[in-house]
Amino acid sequence: MIIVTVANQKGGVGKTTSAINVGTALAATGQRVLLIDLDPQGNASTGLGIGRNDRERSSYDLLLGDMTVDDAAIPTRVPNLDIVPATQDLSGAEIELIEFEARTHRLDQAIERGSKRWDVVLIDCPPSLGLLTINAMVASHALLVPLQCEFFALEGLSQLLTTVERIRERFNPGLSILGVVLTMYDRRNRLTDQVSDDVRAVLGRVVFDTVIPRNVRLSEAPSHGVPALIYDHRCAGSQAYIALAREVIGRLPRLAKAA
Hints:
Radius of gyration: 17 Å
Number of strands: 8
Order of helices and strands: EHEHHHEEHHEHEHEHEHHH
């Protein structure tokens, strides 16, 4: 079972959209996928059609030690894709977790107590580098980083990579970077190409070849409670995520061997 955290401390970079659609694409290939929604906003849960009243079991229960992933996971409309939804209770979880001695390993422990019946676990994090995101990184084999093509992208990425190094040193030496995916790509904007060139110059092959374009269908899909790949699989955004999933699948064997 390979565990991948989808994280970026900056909001609005396509993090949740990437988690939902990569998870859907992986599930379509026959992989058994679990998405853990660790963002108090619960956007991944909403985007997969899980209403607020249907979240009796949540990722909050995992962190508090009340449930394993098997207890909290529920099916979605997408075959082979399950989710542990998020609730507003997560908003106060970071304060509550301070009381626990192993506060950085709560999610890892909940996953370890489970049956490991999924092939891939994706963890959607809040837009911060707080205790929730740290729990995700400690539990994971690798990190998938959506990066918006904008001026401050590299500055934020530098902060994230520094945090990854600290996690490696203190808690999880096996944590690697699965890849960086450039999102909200607009070929009409020269700055987009400049940021893309800069990121590739710094990180090289860590950056996925696939870029995710700005696409209105990607924005519309969550309001219908389905991934863009189901809402409109022919749109440019969906086709990009299908291509990204192919690249992810190509890198997963390396992770499985390392795990």
